[in-house]
Amino acid sequence: MNPPALTELWEQRWPECPPFAHWLRGRYPDRWVRFHSLPGSKRYADNETEYAIVLDRHHAVLSELDPGAVLLVVTSEWTEGPATTPQIWPRRSEIAPSAWHWQTLLEDPEEEPEHRTYTQLYAETIPWRRGAIDVLLRAVADDELANVILAPTDLRWLYHPYDGGADVVLPTREQRDALKAQHPEWLSQQSSGL
Fold this sequence. Notes:
With 194 residues, this protein is an alpha+beta fold. The protein has one domain (3-184). Helices cover 29% and strands 24% of the residues. It has 6 helices and 7 strands, in the order ααβαβαββαβββα. The strands form 2 sheets. Strands 3-4-2-5 form a 4-stranded antiparallel sheet, covered by helices on one side. Strands 1-7-6 form a 3-stranded antiparallel sheet. The longest helix has 18 residues, at 48-65. The termini are far apart. The relative contact order is 0.24. It comes from Micromonospora musae. It holds the Pfam family DUF3885. This is DUF3885 domain-containing protein. Residues 21-189 form the DUF3885 domain.
């Protein structure tokens, strides 16, 4: 997989949304579900027991989604200009040093030039197995990393972990409903699903 091929595949599979992880639920609300990563919708883990729960929930859903042998991992960094450096959150390069630059996006082109922030997207494929992305998932849970997207290499579904849970976008409403039914205790009690 290379940047042009990934871009073409993304545009075929997810034409209504550029790869901004936090936009996915708004662009695909009928195929979206959010799972909370701790009981009682607690946002952050305080101890190793709670981190184990966070990781177990991510692993459970990802295993049910079945990415296959290889998982696509998209991470983000932000810069004040279109160049890939200097980066605002250098933690990304520590967690995903093998990722290659995929593309640069400008979230709000209407913003004044001196206030613009550019999103630098990086991608890599890794062999999927339990524990393969635990460092990344913990960094996301601690809000050290954001705008992460996980997917199979054919992009048939998208998984966006965030500090507090994960948003999942599936190919159909029926698949979304089936996944929701497997973990009702991990869902929000709010009608919005947040």
